[in-house]
Fold this sequence. Notes:
Layout: E1 11-16, H1 32-47, H2 52-59, E2 61-72, E3 81-91, E4 95-104, E5 107-120, H3 131-137
Antiparallel strand pairs: 1-3, 2-5, 3-4, 4-5
Amino acid sequence: MTSGLSDTAVFNWPVRVYYEDTDAGGVVFYANYLKFFERARTEFLRSYGVEQDALVAEQGIIFVVRSVKIDYLKPARFNELLAVSAKIIEIKKTNLTFEQAVTRHQQVLCAGEVRIACLDARTMKPKPIPFAILEQLS
């Protein structure tokens, strides 16, 4: 059930780099870019009315990261204001693939592709994404 999503708008979420985000070298620690990606995906879904806590409570489903491909291109530093983007590039029956990037003044610092899977919260087995959510995202 791959959808033609080439015209899907890119969602952007601002992130300020805090001291706790940096390593001993004064740059953003590599794993924290994944946290920035997570925040942008969560806010992207929220912008479509998809609240993940409600999904668990009402439908017994959760979204989990299935795979990540990431390229670190340039460092971000303490106190910089960054933009983290999220765009769905593929929709399948049980997963969504996002194209994501962290930018500073339109300069790409980090780029990646993240696939999230829909699981039954109790059994942790793949479960189809509810049709209502697919309709909202398409």
